[in-house]
Amino acid sequence: MGQKTSQHLTLKDSQELLSVSEVVSGAIVYAAQKLEEYLGFEDPLSKLRPAPNTLNEIFLINFITFCKGKGIDEWLTTTKMTKHQALLFGADWIWTFWGSDKQIRLQLAVQTLLMSSLPLMESKPCDISNPESGAEESSRKKSRFDKLEEFCNLIGDDCLGLFIIFGVPGKPKDIRGVVLDSIKSETVRSHMPGGNAVVQFVLETKHCVSIRELLGNCLSKKDGLREVGKVYINIL
């Protein structure tokens, strides 16, 4: 994290990264399809339903399995945050895309949210029973949205924040993505807290792009890393 990235892509890199983006897009859709059967499940008698952290693990297991089968380990690294890291930084995992020169081309810092029923459910990385350090105490006062924004700013221009939404009201099996920068513009305009802005954005935004299109644009930097606009990412 925090490495300076090379901005000049060779033709080979461009072709390879395009192929990688195709595989990763397929892996995300595959993992979402595997996760779909668990979304919206609730036993009314026992109040049993999958916890957000459990959904994260199911998604990642299937995503990594798909990617390993395609042999793209050299080009993509998935780093699941520890409980402590997730608490401090607001990211549940990071996808790092590499060039042939071992320079970072793109980092996606992912935070997942369960929105099938409101109020919004966030994954809760850990419960700290020990006395908190100053950093931990300060961190707990911030929303996960703010933590993710700070983390992406700390890493640099080639780190993009991405929310993955597991289920939306009325469509509990939908899985969508929202780019952090799309929400930031809304929070500035409406002075709304980040978490509320995510909910409003998902509920009100009608236009979408595919995850394949998002990754292709980000890796090629053809239209600028953050030039996504007011659209959500259609995953499932």
Automatic annotation (TrEMBL):
GO terms for cellular component: endosome membrane; recycling endosome. It comes from the Eukaryota. One of its GO terms (biological process) is receptor recycling. Transmembrane segments: none annotated. InterPro entries: Rab15_effector. This is Rab15 effector protein. The lineage of its organism: Eukaryota, Metazoa, Chordata, Craniata, Vertebrata. The gene is REP15.
